């Protein structure tokens, strides 16, 4: 019977040695594979062609032999030691690279250093993870031979864009201070303790510019530099009463005693007039600058200021007029009027508050309020007359949860409160006529201009037709050319005017679609919404609701989550 052996050769591979003996079991490919699988060399790569050739040659040697006769030895290399191989893959954006290893077949495993070298030769230059290299090398050494193992070995780094320059206030405004009053030792708050904290002195730092940052560079795994986008810059603006620090160009200093007030990208300092109360004993106040009143403004008094007005107490049946913001930590209280039985135009409230900035008060009743920007009443607004260019917010800063009952409000943007109207059905009128009237006036002006251009165009067209109708001997071609050119100019202008009118009409429609009244808790009956030519009122009690103008009518939609504005 032929004998088969596996023997290492001088190339560190393995030969199949066959000793032919006629007789016994036949040697086949399956026999050789069984021999290999049972040997210590079963993880080497098999050369099937060599096995086939060895068996063919064996059969040739055995053929002429007599039974039990031996023939010459046959030796073929059938097993080969194959070292681990590696393919490096770089992603198309060059932000990562991975290695795919075909594990060794009895050959040499790849070390972490060998993987690194292969990657570098493939063009990977940055972003290597030493930990990943070691893990991949260890994993490939443990996996079965001739299997694929892959892992990420390098990662690029995206650039970090720079931060925009920022303007950081170093002092509080009067309004910020009064909305966060000083606490006493017993836990209560002193609404009148405004003191020197609000006022600044000459040389006090007011605001600081935090310069933009350039950001940090990134890179690809092939070491291509990725440039960051620098932040946007802002210019520090010194307002009146301030100056750029000579020691630090990013710091704004006060150069007079007064009240600090934020302006876009800067701050200004108003002259400040401070007084405990405004009463008959002090007289009225008319001041160029800002006014701080620690206590109350009593009945019949007037306070007029070109800057902000801050009141630590109450305003009762008095007149307040400000060129900036008005902040009243107490309430605005007027004498009672039956405004539901009297025409709004015939009512004159005993208390009047007029601001070109914003207005804030704790509560308000029977008052006349005029405001160029926004109004916020923290608790409740009762039976008052308002003319507000911006929005009306009744409630805490984080949620409109206050009460709006009765009165007549002309508003520019929106009205938001917790409860609007009252169970008793007090009529609450909210009119969005301010901007609508302005846009309608703009459309009327465009129509007037259109009529002028139309008349002029018709006149020129008639002139063109008359000139064209002249007999040849009386024709005036030069004049005709001039009139035609003038006609074309005016016709083009008419087209532009029509486009302008369409744009304003769209703006008007967009505005009507944007305005709303929102009650985050209850909307009672008797709340009227007026949007231009459309108006309607609530006729029953609703839960959280929003009144809007939709498809040429006023509708009331329920809301689940009230969006904050």
From TrEMBL:
Coiled-coil residues: none
Pfam family, one: FapA_N
InterPro entries according to UniProt: FapA (IPR005646), FapA_b_solenoid (IPR046865), FapA_N (IPR046866), MinC_C_sf (IPR036145)
UniProt domain Flagellar Assembly Protein A N-terminal region: residue ranges: 86-263
The protein's name in its UniProt record: FapA family protein
């Amino acid at each position: 019977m032929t004998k088969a052996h596996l023997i290492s050769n001088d190339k560190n591979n393995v030969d199949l040695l066959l000793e032919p003996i006629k007789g016994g079991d036949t040697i086949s490919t399956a026999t050789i594979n069984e021999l290999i699988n049972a040997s210590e060399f079963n993880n080497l790569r098999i050369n099937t062609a060599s096995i086939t050739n060895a068996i063919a040659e064996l059969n040739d040697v055995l053929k002429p032999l007599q039974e039990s006769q031996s023939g010459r030895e046959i030796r073929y290399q059938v097993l080969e030691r194959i070292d681990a191989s590696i393919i490096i893959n770089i992603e198309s954006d060059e932000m990562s690279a991975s290695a795919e290893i075909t594990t060794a077949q009895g050959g040499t495993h790849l070390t972490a250093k060998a993987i690194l070298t292969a990657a570098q030769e493939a063009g990977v230059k940055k972003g290597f993870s030493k930990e990943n290299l070691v893990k991949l090398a260890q994993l490939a050494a443990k996996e079965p031979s001739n299997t694929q193992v892959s892992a990420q070995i390098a990662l690029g780094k995206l650039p970090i864009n720079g931060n925009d320059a920022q303007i950081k206030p170093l002092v509080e405004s009067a309004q910020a201070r009064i909305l966060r009053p000083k606490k006493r030792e017993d836990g209560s708050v002193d609404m009148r303790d405004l003191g020197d904290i609000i006022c600044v002195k000459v040389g006090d730092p007011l605001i600081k510019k935090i310069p933009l940052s350039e950001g940090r560079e990134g890179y690809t795994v092939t070491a291509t530099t990725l440039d960051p986008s620098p932040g946007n810059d802002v210019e520090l603006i010194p307002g009146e009463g301030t100056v750029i620090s000579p020691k630090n160009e990013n710091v704004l200093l006060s150069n007079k005693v007064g009240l600090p007030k934020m302006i876009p990208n800067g701050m200004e300092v108003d002259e400040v007039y401070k007084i405990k109360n405004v009463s008959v004993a002090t007289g009225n106040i008319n001041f160029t600058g800002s006014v701080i009143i620690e206590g109350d403004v009593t009945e019949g008094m007037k306070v007029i200021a070109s800057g902000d007005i801050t009141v630590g107490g109450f305003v009762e049946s008095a007149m307040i007029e400000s060129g900036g913001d008005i902040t009243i930590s107490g309430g605005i209280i007027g004498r009672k009027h039956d405004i539901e039985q009297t025409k709004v135009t015939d009512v004159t409230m005993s208390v009047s508050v007029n601001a070109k900035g914003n207005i804030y008060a704790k509560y308000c009743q029977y008052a006349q309020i005029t405001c160029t920007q926004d109004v916020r009443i923290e608790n409740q607004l009762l039976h008052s007359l308002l003319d507000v260019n911006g929005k009306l917010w009744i409630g805490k800063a984080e949620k409109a949860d206050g009460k709006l009952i009765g009165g007549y409000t002309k508003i520019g943007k929106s009205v938001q409160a917790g409860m609007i109207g009252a169970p008793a059905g007090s009529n609450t009128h909210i009119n969005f006529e301010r901007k609508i009237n302005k846009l309608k006036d703009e459309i009327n002006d465009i129509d007037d201009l259109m009529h002028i251009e139309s008349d002029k165009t018709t006149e020129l067209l008639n002139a063109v037709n008359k000139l064209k109708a002249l007999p040849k001997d009386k024709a005036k071609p030069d004049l005709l050319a001039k009139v035609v050119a003038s006609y074309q100019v005016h016709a083009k202008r008419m087209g532009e005017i029509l486009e302008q009118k369409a744009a304003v009409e769209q703006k008007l429609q967009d505005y009507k679609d944007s305005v709303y009244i929102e009650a985050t808790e209850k909307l009672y009956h008797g709340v009227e919404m007026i949007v231009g030519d459309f108006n309607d009122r609530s006729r029953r009690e609703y839960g959280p609701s929003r009144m809007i103008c939709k498809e040429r009518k006023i509708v009331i939609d329920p809301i689940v989550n009230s969006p904050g504005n």
